Amino acid sequence: MDILGFFFGGFPIFIGLIFILVFGLIIFAIVKNISQWNKNNNSPKLSVPAQVVAKRSDTRGGSGNSSASTSYYATFQVESGDRIELHVSGQEYGMLAEDDLGVLTFQGTRFLSFERRS
């Protein structure tokens, strides 16, 4: 097949497939996020004794002219030994320290609060 045949015959099909793939990935991400949001809303709010065992941050972007965004996570260990990693706000992240003991309140995968025990 010559280059003109590909350009006028196969190239538009290729671009269409890429468009469908990208659009499909966007729809999948939206449906997944709505599903998780709904699952969290239907989960009970739990308050359990817990210990902060780890903290981490994930920074994305910031190269060239793009702005950077940082997500913060804390891992809590409950009395049963299970560990739960939850997304927390930057303010809450700054207030937590590893080995803190307290009461963790969460709903599904949604962090609600952590009250330290003195």
UniProtKB/TrEMBL annotation:
Keyword Membrane included in the entry's annotation: yes
Superkingdom of origin: Bacteria
Pfam families linked: DUF2500
Keyword annotations from UniProtKB, A to Z: Membrane, Transmembrane, Transmembrane helix
Transmembrane region(s): 6-31
InterPro entries (UniProt xref): DUF2500
Name assigned to this protein: DUF2500 domain-containing protein
Biological source species: Psychrobacillus mangrovi
